[in-house]
């Protein structure tokens, strides 16, 4: 997507709507770029997707065909999910691996934007053989007190 050289946007610094001029693109991000206010020369990182494009992206999400998000489920790219805690629908756009080796998905939500969520997450549950239950701990403490 080609970025507009001039965008009419609101400048928070000088508190006016001005024709912002493109200064620099962000490599790898087609939705944001650096723009300069011609009045106060303040730099701002702006979203360059206009409202019409934003609405068409949101309309593409078919809310009737979604999966409820749970961290222990595996998802595929392009799948629509509903996140109960966020109360938002999103589309899986990318798969990733976290620094600790867990699998993650990048989801573009309608309201929240992009978020990284865990997928196929298996918690390490200790077997009963490896666990020490509370009664064994109490017995160990009683034995120590008797020795002293």
What descriptive keywords fit this protein?
alpha+beta, 2 domains, elongated, 16% helix, 5-stranded mixed sheet, 148 residues
Q: Can you tell me about this structure?
A:
With 148 residues, the chain is an alpha+beta fold. It is 16% helix and 37% strand. The longest helix has 14 residues.
Structure in a nutshell:
The protein is of the alpha+beta class and about 150 residues long. The protein has helices spanning about 50-60, 135-145, and strands spanning about 5-10, 15-25, 30-35, 45, 65-70, 80-85, 90-95, 105-110, 115-120. The protein folds into two domains: about 5-50; about 60-120.
Broad structural category: alpha+beta
Radius of gyration: 25 Å
Taking the alpha carbons of the first and last residues, their distance comes to 77 Å
Instruction: Estimate the strand proportion.
Output: 35-45%
- List segments where confidence is low: pLDDT < 50 over at least 5 consecutive residues: none
Helix content: 10-25%
Can you count the beta strands?
9
Shape verdict: elongated
Going across the major beta sheet, what is the strand order? Answer: 5-6-7-8-9
Structural domain tally: 2
Order of helices and strands: EEEEHEEEEEH
Taking the sheet with the most strands, its summary is: 5 strands, mixed
Count of helical regions: 2
Arithmetic mean pLDDT: 77
Topology at a glance:
Blueprint: E1 6-11, E2 16-25, E3 32-36, E4 43-47, H1 51-60, E5 67-68, E6 80-83, E7 88-97, E8 103-109, E9 113-118, H2 134-147
């Amino acid at each position: 997507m080609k970025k507009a050289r001039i965008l009419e946007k609101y400048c928070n610094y000088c508190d006016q709507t001005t024709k912002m001029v493109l200064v620099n693109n962000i490599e790898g991000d087609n939705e944001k770029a650096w723009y300069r206010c011609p009045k106060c020369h303040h730099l701002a990182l702006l979203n360059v997707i206009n409202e019409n494009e934003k609405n068409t992206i949101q309309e593409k999400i078919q809310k009737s065909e979604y999966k409820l998000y749970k961290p222990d489920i595996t998802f595929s790219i392009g799948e629509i999910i509903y996140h109960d805690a966020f109360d938002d629908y999103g589309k899986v756009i990318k798969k990733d691996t976290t620094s600790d080796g867990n699998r993650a998905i990048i989801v573009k939500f309608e309201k929240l934007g992009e978020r990284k969520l865990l997928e196929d997450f298996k918690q390490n549950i200790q077997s009963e053989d490896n666990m020490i239950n509370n009664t064994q701990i109490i017995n160990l403490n009683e034995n120590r007190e008797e020795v002293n």
